[in-house]
Amino acid sequence: MSSKKLAEPIVIVDKNKVKTESSEKITSKEFEKMVLDFAKTGLTSEKIGEELRKRKIHPQEYDKKISKILKENNLYVSPDLKNVEEKFNRIKTHLDKNKQDKRALNEKSRVFSQIKKIREYNQIAK
To answer: In the chain, what is the straight-line distance between the N-terminal and C-terminal CA atoms, in Å?
Structure first.
């Protein structure tokens, strides 16, 4: 017999308040406030979800998705675009230091075309 730890049962107090046995009650307004605080620190919606799960707050227990909350407050940034832009900046700084690196030059143009495709898909002008 294995001693697997079972998932914590969820106790619903009312529609706006959800409680797990190991965490405190949190209303949907408090949840939105936490999401906005994390967004102001520069986290994307996927990283905000990870951070909330670390704190034993599961986003699926609330009415709104994290990305929807961020879009309503004009704080949403496409995680794909942000990750690819960070990669492009790393390659660019590397290429400034190492001008002879032909592979990095090729990678820079490849990643730049990825950025263009993502912006076109998300209809972001820049």
So the answer is: 59
83 and 60 inside one domain = no
Distance in angstroms (rounded) separating the CA atoms of residues 9 and 126: 47
For residue range 67-97, what is the model confidence (pLDDT) as tens digits? 999 999 998 888 999 999 999 999 999 999 9
Mean pLDDT within 96-100: 95
pLDDT of residue 7: 52
Alpha helices in 1-126 (DSSP H): 28-40, 45-54, 66-72, 79-97, 102-122
Predicted TM-score of the model (pTM): 0.65
Q: Do both 46 and 97 map to the same domain?
A: no
Asked, for residue 5, whether it belongs to a domain, the answer is no
**Boundary-marking domain end, from 72, 97, 114:** 72
Number of domains in the chain: 2
| Residue 68 and residue 15 in one domain | yes
User: What is the side-by-side strand order in the sheet with 17-20?
Assistant: 10-12, 17-20, 26-27
Here the tokens at position 50 are: 């990870």
